Amino acid sequence: MRKFWWLILILIVIGISYWFLNNREIEIINPLVKTEKIEKNTGWLAKYNFENLRKRENKASEIKTVGKVLVVEEARKELIKRGDLEGKKFNFESKAISFESNGKKISGMMNIPMTPMSNKLPTIIMIRGFAESEGYFIGSGSWKAADELARNGFITISLDFLGFGLSDSESTDILEARFEKPMSVLDLIESVKSLDIVDSEKIGIWAHSNGGQIAISVLEITGQSYPTVLWAPMTNPFPKSVLEMVDDQSEGSLKVKQRIEEFEKEYDSKLYSIDNFYDWIEVPILIHQGTADVWCKVEWQQDLQKKLKKLGKEVILDIKEGSDHNLKQSWQEVMDEDIKFFKEKFGI
Fold first, then answer.
1. Mind listing the pLDDT tens digit for each residue in 236-284?
2. 220 is in which domain, residue-wise?
3. Which H or E element spans position 105?
4. Is residue 31 part of a domain?
5. What is the CATH number of the domain that holds 296?
6. Could you report the per-residue pLDDT of 306-329, keeping only the tens digit for each?
7. How far is 161 from 200, CA to CA, in rounded Å?
């Protein structure tokens, strides 16, 4: 009889132990084997996740004049010869500028309307898309749109980003080079606000392609009302936005894929992706997307609009039939819509 109760007791102990091990996060450690547990989201790239960037104190620096925009000036002359600028005035001045972000110099192009400065002017931050370093010049990717906005009374600042123009070099780590970009824009905005000629209450954002993802990141991180226009934005979320652009077996693509695999072992990629922070956006957005675009899809913008509207955000999607990634086939029409949008949002 005593043996029977001992057997019952042993079975109970075994049952409790089995339940405990299967319902608790228990890690069995062999004391003879040295193990190292990696805690996610605490590495050196953690400062770039959206939650930490939102806590960051963005820093203003002096915006310095560093020369002329010689290549853009030559490009304007070519447009004049072709007759593309007929009837348009150069009622603004352009200069190459630089500012600092995170201790590094970043160059860009600044257009200033030649109007009386008794009233401070609205300003548009111009964020270009992907660019190759070869053949790059200050203002690349946004100067034509910047010129058109400047003709209509807006100060414009086109930033080059690290590694381009007269900027300091970018990070050698491909992901940090990507994550640095929203931080650069955040510090530029603070620097712009300190200019005497700028109305700090009237700052907007214009962005194209990959710049669109940077712009959305900035809107989410700041939660501020910077009316924003996006041309064919890359709204495919990270890391899909990167992986789908390197979907081949070349050496470069394989390195990118490997780096992202390493990154996701140590970090939660959701903390670096725009689609997880749409509710932080507090600003009207106008999106232009061409149906002949081979890089960004109409479906992406429709999905973004649907999600933002569900959250009660103000977003307009303008689909241009037959227009390419640069909206070349409807360029002037799109620019006119942008000017109207910014003037309405700024009350001017």
1. 999 999 988 886 778 888 999 999 999 999 999 999 999 999 999 999 9
2. 41-346
3. strand 104-113
4. no
5. 3.40.50.1820
6. 999 999 999 999 999 999 999 999
7. 22
